[in-house]
Write a structure and sequence with these properties.
The complex is a heterodimer of chains A (156) and B (115).
Chain A: E1 3-5, H1 11-21, E2 25-29, E3 35-39, H2 44-69, E4 75-79, E5 84-92, E6 95-103, H3 109-126, H4 138-152
Antiparallel strand pairs in A: 1-3, 2-3, 2-6, 4-5, 5-6
Helix pairs in contact in A: 1-3
Chain B: H1 6-13, E1 18-25, E2 31-36, H2 42-62, E3 71-75, E4 78-85, E5 88-94, H3 100-114
The chains are: A alpha+beta (156), B alpha+beta (115).
Chain lengths: 156, 115
């Protein structure tokens, strides 16, 4: 399976999460939609799509949470017939990131949640102070996204 | 405890050496109801034991052994026991002093509640 990262510091925690939680697909991204690392995707266009949709779902869930509970929802689980999706916020010192994980019956929600907690702790320890502050500036967004995808899929 | 499993869990946790017991969803590994002593990491036990139990069931089925009745993990300083029915797994976490035979009988009787 293809594993690639745009930032070196996310590699060890993400790899450990993928190995232990036995997920089929995983994408780590900024809330803006910028990809930081991925596992399981073969094409950059799929990663780009997954990031855009994940960022949108995360933003919608956050706003919905603010309306309902006065604070953003930080995690989401969807159980399909054969595959399940887990989307959650990864808090780090400089802000937060988003993790999308897709798994089948080789894993379970409980196992994914368990190792997600360990992943968050590992990310907090590994993250540099400026890790979550980057892009989201409209002018730079596409260039940054393409740069990250090129680094991950070997066209840098 | 107010769920249908309260009586079963209360009865199991009273056994000498038992430090936690839980009713867990077999497919998702999430706790439905539990009775745990302080310091027992219920969510971790639940997720990992449900996963082990599910795999044990699949292994038994693949080997042609039929349904898995009772699952026991014997470790250096304790035991984890599991028995399931209807997509639910009853999990008991115990120390070295536990009377496994007694707990096993109690767990198998308790399976009726999961039906």
């Amino acid at each position: 399976m293809k594993f690639s990262v745009a930032e070196n510091w996310v590699e060890a925690p993400l790899k450990q999460f993928v190995d232990e939680a036995r997920v089929q697909l995983a994408v780590l991204l900024h809330p803006s939609g910028q990809v930081l690392g991925q596992f399981g995707f073969a094409r950059s266009v799929d990663v780009m799509t997954a990031c855009a949709l994940s960022a949108a779902i995360h933003a919608s869930a956050g706003e919905l949470g603010r309306l309902v509970e006065g604070k953003p929802f930080t995690g989401l689980h969807y159980a399909g017939k054969a595959r399940q999706l887990f989307l959650a916020q990864v808090p780090i010192a400089a802000g937060s990131l988003v993790l999308l994980a897709v798994f089948d019956d080789e894993s379970s929600l409980g196992v994914v949640q368990l190792f997600f907690r360990e992943f968050c702790a590992a990310m907090r320890a590994a993250a540099p102070a400026s890790a979550a502050s980057p892009p989201a500036l409209a002018g730079d967004f596409e260039r940054e996204l393409n740069r990250n995808l090129a680094v991950m899929f070997g066209r840098a | 405890m107010t769920s249908a499993f309260g009586t079963v869990l209360t009865s199991l946790i009273r056994h000498r050496g038992v430090t936690g017991c839980m009713v867990v969803g077999e497919q998702d590994g999430i706790i439905v109801d539990s009775s745990l002593q302080i310091g027992v990491n219920g969510t971790a036990f639940a997720a990992l034991t449900a996963s082990l139990y599910r795999r044990a069931r699949r292994s038994a089925a693949a080997a042609g052994f039929g349904e898995t009745g009772f699952f026991e993990l014997d470790a250096e300083h304790g035991r984890v026991c599991a028995a399931g029915r209807n997509d639910l797994v009853l999990v008991v976490v115990a120390g070295e002093r536990v009377n496994v035979g007694l707990v096993r009988v109690e767990m198998l009787k308790a399976l009726e509640v999961l039906s």
